[in-house]
Amino acid sequence: MILIGESIHIISKQVSESTANRNPVVIQDLARRQAQSGADYVDVNLGPARKNPEEVAGWLVKTIQEVVDLPLSIDTMNPIAMEAGLKGCKKRPLLNSSSGRTDSKQNMLPLAKKYNTDVVISVLTDRGCPPDLDSRTESIMETVAHANELGIPNEDIWVDPIILPISADQKQVRESLEFIKILPDLLPGVKSTIGLSNVSNGTPEELRPILNRTLMVMLGRYGLYSAIVDVLDPELVRLNRGEMPNIVDLIYRQMDGGAIDMASLTQEERNYVKTVKVMMGDILYSHAWLES
Amino acid sequence: MEYKTPLETYTGRVSGVVISKGEKAAKVGGESVLPFHFFEGKIENRPLLALEVYDIEPQGWSESVLQPYKDVVADPIAWANKCLSYGADLICLRLMSTDPAGANAPADKAAATVKRVVSAIKAPVIVYGSGDETKDIEVLVKVAEVCDGEQLLLGPLVKENYEPISKAASAHGHSVIAQTPIDINLEKELNVKLLKSFPPDKIVIDPLSSALGYGMEYSFTIMERTKHIGVMFGDSTMQMPIIADLAAESWKTKQARENKKQGILWESVAALSLLLAGANILVLRHPESCKLMKEVIEGKI
């Protein structure tokens, strides 16, 4: 799976201060560390970029490319910042993201065509995040058709089904699995991605990694092409590289509902099995899901 | 073709919790079906009806709900007996005197009141602290000690204070009420943590009960889901009886305060709804609501 490193995010205080002061140290350090940790792309999340969007985006892209050789994923809802960011990219970037929202169709998708980029298209619409699998597929079919009309081929499109925090909506986790499973039949040739860490938003910090890792493996089983992740989590990267086959096997077996003898497992293995159970909705989520 | 009634089969059972001891003892919970599904299985105990008693004269009660208690509000024992004469199965004694934002009475004084009431009346007692999570530690720990062995139902325990209070409850043989803010995930989390050192048959869940028109449907959903998860899906961390502590919220509403009939109906409709959602104990305020709910439960209306 292609890993897009999420650490350069304007929501981080360090990143936002460094950006405001045009201080490259923190940004370049994060870029380097993510590259060394195994990122395939570096995400540059500018947020709404209300102040000096062109200058900020240009500076960030330039600053990051001074130290890493990876392609960038430009992440902002501001089309002016987006265009400035894409313009500065040395390698073919990823436009992250567009959606079924009217403003996005009008302002973002044409940029993907103009700069010949790969483009993330999420299932969001003017009415927000579609509530179930059917409405998500309906939304994505429509937006991808629109993108095709603009001349963007399926091969350049990375579909994002949007994952919500498991602590807020447990049942959509299973639906996201289903979505990724049926995607090749719905839209042959498209790729896929997901903002993985959002699944653990709202969960206590120290418990987030195992949720992120487990879901990555589960989605990967159904062919998820890429994910925006915390690439600084070494275990997540090792799992993705196939260096922990026992855990992957265990996750698959629990997904299939296999009767697993918990007593024979290590604590770590038990934690993965329990995490699959909450992901699948077999047991009710609580922040104490590993404790019972 | 012969008609066959479609019936659910259930995998879980709500634990039975005993409140008080000896002749006074009452049992709640114990059902292995959804609420009122008599046709599918056994409902061991009918829901219990509690009326509120304050340990200090209540402030701001509307005239229509104060009137039935007018001559007893200064005396918790007389008030408790009045409630029993109105048909309550048990008493919910609320230690409002201890509220740091109010009279801020010391814990031992409140605990002495509980002891007096418990000794004087012939019915089980639920004891709620003021809801101040810090002060409630002192107050409920003291009540647990002073009323050693009385098997009271003590609450609310919240995530910030469940450890010291449950420890005292355990040492002195009481049951506890685990309270979370209308959230099924937090409810389960508190139960999981509590269950590490506390037996499941001494816990009652308080998911918070909002008033009709003020979010009651959220409380309804949480109670309904709690029963689904506990009884249908057999999640042992969710198999405790539920208390619907709805009186205060109901009587706070503009609608309930407008006139007596509307007030009683406002409280009763919330009570009936939460009963259908799965409440095992109702905490009510007006004697007429209590009477109405008793008739509903006994199948008279």
List keywords for this structure.
heterodimer; A: alpha/beta; TIM Barrel; 46% helix; B: alpha/beta; eight-stranded parallel β-sheet; two-stranded antiparallel sheet; 40% helix
Fold and architecture overview:
The complex is a heterodimer of chains A (292) and B (301). Chain A has helices at 13-20, 24-37, 53-65, 79-88, 102-107, 109-114, 133-149, 171-186, 208-221, 234-240, 245-255, 267-279; strands at 2-5, 41-47, 72-76, 94-98, 118-122, 157-160, 191-192, 226-229. Chain A is of the alpha/beta class and 292 residues long. An eight-stranded parallel beta sheet of chain A has the order 7-6-5-4-3-2-1-8. The radius of gyration of chain A is 19 Å and the shape is globular. The model of chain A has no long low-confidence stretch (mean pLDDT 96). Chain B is of the alpha/beta class and 301 residues long. Chain B is 40% helix and 15% strand. Chain B has eleven helices and ten strands. Chain B has helices spanning 63-66, 76-85, 107-120, 135-146, 162-171, 184-195, 216-232, 247-252, 254-258, 260-277, 287-297, and strands at 16-19, 26-29, 48-54, 90-94, 125-128, 153-157, 175-179, 203-206, 243-245, 281-284. In chain B, strands 8-7-6-5-4-3-10-9 form an eight-stranded parallel beta sheet. A two-stranded antiparallel ribbon of chain B has the order 1-2. The longest helix of chain B has 18 residues, at 260-277. Chain B is globular. The mean pLDDT of chain B is 96.
